[in-house]
Specification:
The protein is α/β, with parallel strands linked by helices. Helices cover about 25% and strands about 30% of the residues. Helix 2 packs parallel to helix 6, helix 6 (about 265-275) packs across helix 7 (about 280-295) and helix 10 packs across helix 11.
């Protein structure tokens, strides 16, 4: 009887449940300091703080985080001691089932370690205080130790890292190294933890790597036998890690559609999360990130990774069913100036020019359109339906459309060009005989000191003679083309042949720029008519690039190039630049039934070139916006 009464009392007692808490640590480092207050011009980055602010906006707008649940550490505050202190604090305050989110954007580091089971390497991140007497490196073993403490306390940890070599910070797998372009988040140097003097020498060398963004590997071996258990190897760890790149790859930065620099991985992450429900699984998120990076022509340069507890792969990003998750992006009105509405969030909320919003609650009928951004934290919008008198400061508006309006990434000049028949006739009568002429220089050859350029302009084949002269550039002697006179001759399209050409050039070297056939140019322009990333211009002086084709003897075919080398009748000094972006076809003639495919291939070539200038806009050009 007493036992039954006791059990009844226990059952009737109020049950006190521990509330699930949220904790976020967001680190973004653009500025690295040679001395206290003195920013290094050599290795500082541009998009990391922007990334961090965008991630913070995502947590607050979509995942219900409050300001007091997020710690941010930027630039000068991101010293080694301060970062370590934040990790220690996070490990101490988190509890069972708490949601822990960690994000880092900055430089990644590769460390050579002959004792490491990870292909002889360890990784790390770089704090902002390069002047630190104990080195500014934070080792992967340190990061694993902190995360393991959180896991041991049964917290649910998500760690996202947008830096070079990120894939090896808690785990690594041997993956081939590839070349990349653009601004990189990498420093390749080593750190011997117990030899501060050597650290100083390495960091001094690092400061001198001005343009490469990656220090060549040294022979210093840290010879560290310490092995810290990988968080994902802990049983039921509930740990998830996203890496912007493998442990062998560097992480790119790109300008977004607002021309604000971001890490390519984070830009893709924010982009896909705007359109995905917060219930989307981590696997779905990674797949969509990779699709977006492929569309941006970046996936071949860096391949994001995800690993951790396999149970997390099919859960949402945070691995938790938090009650405050939202599939909406909401921003608030901060000011009203006649018909112009100032909104909170700006770029950090993912807003861009052209986005549409609608009021909430009783003001659903009011419609806005974003016309401009005012930095990372504000946007200017115009009322497209409704009255400003109905809007008050503090009103919330929901993003209803992400259609974005942006300026072209690439302006292209395509001159009037011969028909496909005339193109093939020229190739047959001039190019193919020229292949056997020693003075004819193909794509892979450099002309002699005096040479002719043959090109098509104003419905005629033109020739211009150039002289190759050395230019003194410090310790290097570089030969560069200088035009010594204007057009020497014009050939009617249907009258030129190899014999006539040889009479013109005599014994001098010559190079022939082939234009795109008219049919290919027309199809290319049609394919890209609604594409916001490419603008075709009629004035060569407005163009960034043009197209030309030439012969490549080695492959027995034509090579098409997006090039700055010749735009209209303007030749760049230093000619025959051998542009990176090219497309090859077999044979020296273009068949009529190959025109459409060639135009599509050249379209992709243009978009690839445009992607190097910034993020590509997926939305079509709209005539009614």
């Amino acid at each position: 009887m007493k036992t039954a009464v006791f059990l009844l009392l226990v059952l009737c007692m109020p049950v006190v449940l521990k509330a699930q808490k949220k904790h976020a640590l967001i680190i973004g480092i653009d500025n690295y300091y040679e001395r206290r207050g003195v920013v290094s011009k050599n290795i500082s980055l541009k998009g990391c703080v922007n990334d961090a602010m965008a991630i913070k906006g995502l947590l607050m707008n979509r995942f219900g985080f409050k300001e007091n649940e997020i710690q941010t550490v930027y630039n000068e505050e991101a010293t080694k001691d301060n970062i370590l202190s934040k990790f220690i604090s996070l490990a101490n305050v988190c509890g069972k089932d708490d949601v822990v989110f960690i994000y880092y954007a900055g430089h990644g580091v590769t460390l050579w370690n002959s004792y490491s089971p990870k292909d002889g390497k360890n990784q790390g991140i770089l704090a902002s205080d390069l002047y630190s007497k104990t080195s500014s490196l934070i080792r992967d073993n340190d990061l694993k130790t902190f995360v393991n403490k959180m896991i041991d306390k049964k917290a649910v940890v998500t760690f996202i890292n947008d830096c070079c070599f990120a894939g090896g910070l808690t785990k690594a797998a041997p993956i081939r190294e590839i070349d990349t372009v653009g601004r990189m988040r990498s420093i390749r140097y080593v750190h011997k933890e117990h030899e501060d003097e050597e650290d100083r020498e390495i960091e001094e060398a690092m400061k001198d790597t001005l343009l490469s963004r990656a220090l060549p590997a040294t022979n210093v071996d840290i010879k560290d036998k310490t092995i810290v258990q990988r968080p994902e190897d802990k049983k039921n760890s509930r740990f998830l890690f996203f890496a912007a790149a493998t442990d062998y790859e560097e992480s790119n930065e790109r300008l977004d559609l607002n021309n604000i620099p971001h890490g390519a991985f984070t830009a893709a992450f924010i982009h896909v999360m705007k359109k995905m429900p917060v219930s989307a699984t981590s696997t779905e998120i990674l797949n969509n990130i990779n699709k977006e990076l492929t569309r941006q022509y970046i996936f071949g340069l860096q391949k994001p990774l995800m690993y951790g507890d396999p149970n997390r792969y099919n859960m949402n990003l945070l691995g938790s069913n938090l009650p405050a998750l939202s599939n909406k992006t909401l921003v608030s009105v901060t000011a009203i100036n006649q018909n112009q509405i100032i909104l909170s969030g700006g770029a950090s909320a993912g807003l861009a020019r052209g986005n549409t919003l609608a009021g909430t609650g009783s003001k659903k009928a009011i419609k806005l359109r974003v016309d401009a951004l005012a930095g990372l934290t504000a946007a200017k919008a115009t009322i497209t339906y409704g009255s400003a008198a109905s809007i008050k400061v503090g009103d919330q508006f929901e993003v209803t459309g992400w259609h974005t309006v942006s300026l072209p990434r690439l302006k292209v000049y395509l001159p009037a060009s011969p028909s496909l028949h005339a193109f093939n006739r020229f190739v047959s009568q001039v190019i193919q005989p020229a292949i056997y002429d020693e003075q004819y220089k193909d794509y892979n050859q450099v002309p002699g000191d005096y040479s002719f350029n043959i090109y098509f302009s104003k419905d005629k084949w033109q020739s211009i003679q150039q002289q190759l002269a050395p230019i003194d550039r410090g310790t290097y002697k570089v030969k560069s083309y200088k035009t010594i006179n204007e057009s020497k001759a014009s050939f009617a399209v249907n009258s030129i042949d190899f014999k006539k050409l040889k009479q013109e050039v005599s014994k001098l070297d010559y190079f022939i720029y082939l234009p795109l056939p008219a049919e290919v140019s027309a199809r290319l322009k049609s394919n890209l008519a609604s594409n916001q990333n490419i603008q075709f211009v009629n004035n060569p002086s407005e163009a960034d690039v043009s197209f030309y084709a030439t012969v490549e003897r080695a492959t027995g075919g034509l090579i098409f190039l997006v090039s700055k080398e010749i735009i209209g009748e303007k030749f760049l000094d230093g000619g025959h630049m051998r542009e990176r972006h090219s497309h090859r076809i077999e044979g020296y003639n273009i068949k009529q039934d190959a025109v459409n495919k060639l135009a599509v291939d050249l379209q992709n070539l243009l978009l690839l070139s445009a992607s190097y200038k910034g993020w590509l806009n997926e939305y079509a050009r709209s005539t009614n916006r």
